[in-house]
Amino acid sequence: MHIRSIPLALFLLVPVISIASEGMVFVAVYECEADDINRVMVEACSGQFPGLSKQANEALAAWRKRNAAKASAAKEACANMGDSENASTSDRNAFRRLITDKKAEILSSFTADIRRQGATPCREAIRQLQAVGGPLEIR
């Protein structure tokens, strides 16, 4: 099973704080927490826009059907990142804090987008969850 291991491997090779590419960090965090992030986004959309609830839940179910095994493997790989003998306790703690903080940032940004743009971010998230090979697929 192939998972994007390059972003994850970077956490073992360099201190988490020194990672230069913010985008790469968000990709790694998304892949570590994809199912939970998608679930929370669907719940936010369903709560704010009940008319989108059925479509959002169906899109999440379709995404899970395509990605459940890969999402589970990625989450497990992330959970095991701290088990490396190359990582110090402070590096492991920094990695875990980074995952938690960036996940919260992703969800906060999505919620803020909903407040600013209404249902548009929800419709886009639904479209991306439905898209085979789309931006939310785990590769």
Number of helical stretches of at least 4 residues: 5
| Range of strand content | under 5%
Given as residue ranges, the uncertain stretches (5+ residues, pLDDT < 50) are 1-14, 16-20
Structural class: mainly alpha
The helix content is over 70%
What's the count of strands? Answer: 0
SSE arrangement, N to C: HHHHH
Radius of gyration: 16 Å
Please report the distance between the alpha carbons of the first and last residues: 9 Å
Biggest sheet architecture: none
> Given the C-alpha coordinates, what overall shape results?
globular
Overall mean pLDDT = 84
Notes on the structure:
This protein is an all-alpha fold and 139 residues long. Helix content is 74%, strand content 0%. The chain has helices at 5-13, 22-48, 53-79, 89-117, 120-130. 24% of the residues are buried.
